[in-house]
Design a protein that fits this description.
Number of strands: 0
Distance between the termini: 160 Å
Number of helices: 52
Structural class: mainly alpha
Strand content: under 5%
Shape: extended
Radius of gyration: 57 Å
Amino acid sequence: MANILQKDKRFFLYQEPPPGYIAGFGRGAVGFTTRLDIGSARNSDIPGFPGRDDKSKATSNTGGEDEDEDESSNKGGDNGKFDEFEGSSTDKLFDSSKGYDQEDKDADAIWDAIDSKMDSRRKKKREANEQLKLEKQRESRPKIQQQLQDLKKDLSTISEDQWASLPDAGDLSRRNQRKKYDIYTPVPDSVLERAKSENETYSIIQTNAAAAAPSSSTAGIGLSGIDNSSGTSTTDLTQVGSARKTVLDLKLHQVSDNVSGKTCVDPKGYLTDLRSKRIASDAEVGDIKKARLLFKSATTSNPKHSPSWIAAAKLEVLAGKIVDARKIIAQACKECPTSEEVWIENANLQTPDNAKIVLAQAVRVIPHSVKIWLYAANLEKQLKMKKRVLRRALEFIPTSVKLWKEAIELEEPEDARILLGRAVECVPDNIDLWLALANLETYEKAREVLNKARQALPSSSEIWISAAQLEESQGKNDNVNKIIKKAIKSLCSGVMNVMNRDKWIAEAEKSEKNQYYVTCQAIIYETIGMGIEDDDRKRIWVIDAEECLSRGSIKTANAIYAHILSVFPTKKSVWLKVAQLEKQHGTKETLDQTLEKATQKCPQYENLWLMYAKEKWISGDVAKAREILAQAFKFNPGSENIWVAAVKIESEMNELRAARNLLKKAREIAGTERIWMKSALLERELGGDQKLEMSIIEQGLQKYPNSFKLWLMKAQLEERQSIALINNNNSNNNNNINNNQQNNNQQISTTSIEKIRQTYKNATVKCPNNGSVWIEASRFEKRNNNFNRARALLEQAKLKNPTDDDIYLEFVRFEDSLGNRKQATTILALGIQASPKSGKLWAELIAMEPRHSQRNKCVDALNRCNNDPYVFTQVSKIFWMDGKFDKAKQWYQRVTTTFPEYGDGWAYYYAFILKFEPENKDQILKKCVEAEPNLGEHWIKVAKQVGNSRLKTDQILKQVSFNLSKSLLQQQQQQQQNNNNQQQLQQQQQQNNNNNQQQQQNNNNNQQQQQNNNQQQQQTNLQPEIIKK
């Protein structure tokens, strides 16, 4: 079978070669024989050619002789029948003597039958594969006839005019074009003379006739004054200039006053007219010409493309040729009659009356175009005509929502209700129309309308919510919850799940904005828990409430908090958030109700009790505040905050005995460090018994030896006692003071100093890591002029607390106050290196820098401490000093907004407002009172001063701002004085330089004079000798 297949493949071997054929002649193989032409190298698979089979048979018949014998036998075994082309006769595959017998024929028949059987088994599959390949090939590479088949079908719809307007294809190959030559034939002179005499005309404008009829138009004047003597109408160019001059004179006569002869032309309007005329440059003109050619090509090649026509018309409008633009757009309306944009552009280019005519033609061609109808309605000035146009449009397009809305807006409420009834019949799937109809109907009919809308739109949540809002507007709040429940059951079922939790919250916020608060609460109560696990409820609900607050939805957030408290009634954090919300956005009654419920649900949470009592105290109900604190004592007997609050109320009301008794009980029951400190502070504020104050402090130190505040209070008390003793002695001996008494006073003062110094030493031993103790000790030594001891204390404090910026700041100010600016700068650099993000140190560095380099330091400070109140305040001061008040105000606002507890920022801002915007001082004062600041160096200094414990926030603010204004004024005066001194120094230096220059010049003159005198003396001495000679 393989031989047969190979035989079929090499059928050319059985054909007769052409005459004169020589194998290999084309590649130069002529006159030699290769090994392939003879021997066993010939293909043994082809019948009639020698192969290896005969040789193998011959070799097997010899009985296995050696190679030498085989070669010799082969050389002489061909009996002289070897042919150089066909080889030996023994190498043939078939013997020519044997014929083609019956067995060979039967074998061939069997193999043919097998081949046909195998071929028939695969025939269908092979034909199917071939057909599939052919189809794919035709699809990938279709014929041109198939590609143009759809276009040929569309040719049947082309009219004769359209067919005639098709451009000719033309011969672009230029293959059949012949070179044409222009042939010029001379014309006889007689023909030229006759043409000249026939075409000669005289165009004369009669001025008198024009003056007699000044109201006629320019075109009429020109036509009436032209005398065409011949049949050919030509223009004499030589007379054009005079004609234009005449026409201009006529125009001037038309605008002139017949009485006075003065012109009526408005010169301003004329100049404005000239300015409005736009003169195009040569480049623009060239671009317009190119664009005109491109658009002309586009409209010619594809006349059905409407944007090309519109662009061509706009181009002509840009070029100032409105007439050409109208012609182009009119042609576009003929070529593209179904394009809305073309008709609208045509109307835009026409006058209002002509635009109406154009739109009338448009609606005849495109009666279902909403844009054209709306444009036609907008062209009408009268309301009646607009209504007529819109109603006519609705006859053609009854399903257009835009047309219905435009028509309804023009009608009165009663007529609008009728139109809406018809609109919902024509467009039942529009929610806005249903809701508008329900708003115009009465309560009963509105319910019927909403029921019909719900049946027409079962998946719309707006209809359900509108029904709930309708019930709320009628005061039927119970029906609101029922409707919302039905809505959730209908919209969130398995078949129709169109609303999720976030969408319901958004609908609640919309109801709140529309002031339907009951509907908002009902939606939140029914949907806030959808799809949330029990463990995540509180966390997710709190996040939802905060997001609603950020969007300004106060009632929605309040409803979410109320639902949280209904599920988690003992959550203190939630009650605190609700109380803060009511305090900011609620009323006084709602806040009291919320705090009362909170204290009942969370009686162990002292902050709620304190907030409740504070609100009552601020409102002036002191008795209620005392009652609240008394109830708080029952549930929180050991709370120091409640004890301190009760003492504060009593002290503010001047009930000093009650305050002392409360503190005495507090020391016995609670006995915390803060209670002991508050007891000592109360005695200090009263200023009565200093022994009792010292006794309380010493008892507190015995219980809390590491309390730095008690140590500082003890040292300050001892210092006050020492000063009071010295003042008493000076007052008693004011008239007669002897030396012995002075020595005694000095001895008492020295003894007190040593005692106070020992107290500070004990404080530093007990509290070595607190910077305030070291700072107060150094200040005490500085007040007593012991500068070396103060410096040593600060050095020791720096070693104990290497990263405390307060110690570095105090050290810098100490050195600077003594005039050691260089040493202060070195210490400040070390402090910034130890605490690179300390805003206090950076602010001090900016303040110590010269004026010209402060801005650079501000930039460095903001890069290191981008969110620090001290740096922000210092930057604001720099802008204030530089006179950039807007920027200073912005930075002060940034300080007070970002750090509302920073009192110094409020004080600087208030001082700034007092100076530049005094009308806004009350607003700043109010904001500061709401913020309740308690931080800041200057703020604490005033608030903690003896006798200022009863000052309120606004009073502290005014006092601190006054102090800061005074210091700023002193700084400005000092800076001005420094500038003046510097200028005086420069002037003095300049004067000295001038004096030195004058002195040097005088010296030079004296030297020159001396030289001249010497020369004259020499000449005088030499003259007698010359005479003698």
